[in-house]
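Final report, section 2: Outcomes. Of the targets proposed, Coproporphyrin III ferrochelatase is the one most frequently requested by collaborating groups, and we therefore present its record in full.
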Amino acid sequence: MTEWSKPQPSSRVVVQAGAAVPAATPEAAAGDKWVEIPTEFDAIMLSSYGGPNGQDDVLPFLRNVTMGRNVPDERLEEVAVHYREAGGVSPINEQNLALKAAIEDELKRREIDLPVYFGNRNWDPYFTEAVSRAHEDNKVADRPTKIFALVTSAYSAYSSCRQYREDFADTLEALDLWDEVQIDSSRTFFDHPGFVNPFIEGTLKALAELVDENGELDLTKDVEVLFSAHSIPIKDNAQSGEPDEHDYADLGAYQAQHLAVGGLVMDSVKEQYGIDVPWKLVYQSESGPGHIPWLKPDINDYLEEVSSTRKAVVVVPATFLSDHMEVWWDLDIEAKETADEQGLGYKRVATPGIHPEFVAAMVDLVEERLNGTPAAERPALTSYGPGYDVCRAGCCQGSGKLRAAIGGLLP
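The predicted structure is given below as tokens.
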């Protein structure tokens, strides 16, 4: 029985900018931003971050997350306590299996006959197992196996875009399948209606609950909606992609995209109530060395600050697709505790999870590529337009050394 693990970084040479897309389907290999030619795929790989399944998994999982960064176990134990409080089990695994099943049902409803495999970057089942099984199950004579990687991250950033593409490259090298498997990665979808609408629905519900519980609340003064994004290093934000040239031209794409989502949600709030409810983008889950500056303000710091002017907050976990560890620990426990200490009413909006609109959106991403849907006809609610099918050279470069990656123009 094969013992699967997280692969080591690929040794493939990173070549000059603008080079052809490696390990891509022929339709994507030319490097156009959007692939508007129908593409035949053999399988879908639902691609996620991963999480431990028990106490014995916690440290090995965190070592995978920090691979190559020489983080001592003593430092990892500071994060491990979050998982240990939950019995060492991350809820992300069960949530992704539920999403996989919902996607399979939606594919069947649309009469799309494609098998769905599930793989993680950092824990079992690893990308190596998912790609290997997809290849063995779907071999086609005289051509590589074509896999569409449906990535469970909506925004542009190193950890949510390029790092996945690096891990796909690592996987192909570990399996020695560079010439036998082609992987196209899904586009960013932060402004797809199916991702945004569940947040709109949840925010309106939370505000209505606050009003029902306290009819004297003035939504223009007493309540603030906080859009909580996973913090990233400021340098990573600056390199996260092309910012919105209309509204947030002076910001990195990651930050700008979250602000755009916040604006969409609050436009719906104004339409519902006829007033402007205060809102702000805040950050959570900062980690890493203290000398590296990260996006701020931290949600807990801001809750302490805003308690002098507000009576209640509604927290929207805008980065996250499901109610996994960072939502449960950082928002439902730590931020809620801070709000209680400050005397603030607190409502936390649900993530999209397996909301029917979100499941449909994920299958939309598949169907766009199967049909070669023109970019102008793809759902997108902001002036960004739909995310690119093929990342630009150097897209979402992180703070470290540029590594081999697929799904985009090199390097």
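The chain has a mean pLDDT of 94.
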